[in-house]
């Protein structure tokens, strides 16, 4: 893909599509969610080995948030700022679905899936965690706030990514040396 703005534009357009779909349909499942789900389940397994039940339950959400943030840090070190913007879009997909899941804690209307547990015996992560913390009655408000944070992350992705692509386009069009200045680092 290189540093071509045109090669990166479809990814930014796809994130715009994901952002709109997330708002219109809380059950929308993007390609990124196919990555997020195994990361979430892997977080339960990873943190479950630490012997603390609460941390094992929270581990799914923890790893789901750590993965895009750690990826963004890696891309900052590589000076690929467009990829950092993409990580904000990825983080948005995680935050949005975490918020929807959190808001469902009391209702338990969402279908639950996990690794190695028979259907019907699966605990609801957020019902357990918010219940243990004594704040279960705030599930909907907290879920709404997390969804809004996810939408904000998507706006950062789209605005930052769009700005970077625009700069890449301007540098290419002006004939400036791609090896100098900001454009070489986007």
Verbal overview:
The chain has 186 residues and is an all-alpha fold. It has one domain. Helix content is 70%, strand content 0%. The protein has helices spanning 5-24, 31-48, 53-77, 81-103, 125-133, 139-174. The longest helix is centred in the last third of the chain and has 36 residues, at 139-174. The radius of gyration is 19 Å and the shape is elongated.
Measured by DSSP, the beta-strand proportion falls in: under 5%
Q: Gyration radius, to the nearest Å?
A: 19 Å
Shape: elongated
Overall tally of structural domains: 1
Main sheet record: none
User: pLDDT under 50 segments (min length 5)?
Assistant: 177-184
Overall number of strands: 0
Determine the mean pLDDT: 89
Distance between the termini: 12 Å
- Which class do the helix and strand fractions yield? mainly alpha
Order of helices and strands: HHHHHH
User: Helix proportion of residues, in percent?
Assistant: over 70%
| Number of separate helices | 6
């Amino acid at each position: 893909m290189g540093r071509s703005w045109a090669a990166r534009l479809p990814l930014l357009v796809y994130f715009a599509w994901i952002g709109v779909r997330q708002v219109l349909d809380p059950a929308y499942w993007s390609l990124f969610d196919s990555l997020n789900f195994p990361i979430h389940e892997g977080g339960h397994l990873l943190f479950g080995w630490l012997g603390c039940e609460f941390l094992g339950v929270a581990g799914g959400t923890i790893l789901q948030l750590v993965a895009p943030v750690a990826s963004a840090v890696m891309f900052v070190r590589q000076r690929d700022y467009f990829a950092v913007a993409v990580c904000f879009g990825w983080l948005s997909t995680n935050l949005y679905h975490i918020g929807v899941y959190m808001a469902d804690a009391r209702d338990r209307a969402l279908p639950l899936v996990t690794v190695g547990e028979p259907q019907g015996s699966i605990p609801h992560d957020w019902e357990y965690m918010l219940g243990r913390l004594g704040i279960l009655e705030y599930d909907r408000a907290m879920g709404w706030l997390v969804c809004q944070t996810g939408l904000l992350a998507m706006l950062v992705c789209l605005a930052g990514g769009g700005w970077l692509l625009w700069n890449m386009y301007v540098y290419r069009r002006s004939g400036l040396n791609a090896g100098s200045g900001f454009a070489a680092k986007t």
